[in-house]
Amino acid sequence: MEPVRIIPCLDMKDGRVVKGVHFVELRDAGDPVENAAFYREAGADEVAMLDIAATVEGRKTRLEWARAVAEALGDTPLTVGGGINELADIEALFGVGVGKVSMNSAAVARPELVREAAEAYGSNRVIVAIDGRRNPEMLSGFEVVVSGGRRGTGLDCVEWARRCEELGAGEILPTSMDGDGTRAGYDLPFTRAVAEAVSLPVIASGGAGTLEHFYEGVVEGKAAALLAASVFHFRTFSVGEVKEYLAGRGIPVSR
Length: 255
Description:
Layout: E1 5-13, E2 16-21, E3 24-28, H1 32-42, E4 47-51, H2 54-57, H3 63-73, E5 78-81, H4 87-95, E6 100-103, H5 105-109, H6 112-121, E7 126-134, E8 142-146, E9 151-156, H7 157-167, E10 171-176, H8 188-197, E11 203-204, H9 211-219, E12 225-228, H10 230-233, H11 239-248
Parallel strand pairs: 1-4, 1-12, 4-5, 5-6, 6-7, 7-10, 11-12
Antiparallel strand pairs: 1-2, 2-3, 7-8, 8-9
């Protein structure tokens, strides 16, 4: 088993890190550069930065934010998502030090963008984020939502994950809108359904609140990486504490 990666996530709005519940009720969580430097020192395996307002506001990702955070992270890899609509956007992000890109709404709108990005830069640099909510009309029980959770698509999350793998995505990042920010635990049925449908690494996201939740994300959710925000930003516990806990329960982690 490969070491499980621990990934703090910086949700960005108006130049600040924010965190909400169910994608709304946002509150301030600090300066992105200060957070990035903190997580680098804390031993994060990667850091994700998601410009949560870019798609809603109809603009590109702020390159200046990405550059500043990438510089603060140094050798720690940075993934950026939000406002990516074409290869030129990806090229620009890689040009300021970003390691991977995460696509969500743009991939749904034009799936071929995933293939184009994978062919141009390699699958290992292309993540497809899938925001999902429960919908009994879907075969899997989960529907893809876009535009920050504001709009349903009628797409089944599991079928969409399979399609993204076929298109060349290197990883899948499913986030449960139902669990986001609740600290009630990852949406394990959602994460597991996606993980069992693809052969790609799956990143659990949305709802971590205890050390046990991280363990469950791997063992029950079958995730290869664990993304969290609130518990790290508000210092409920550290990246190191998560790794120590997982290692103590037999889950391999990097040191």
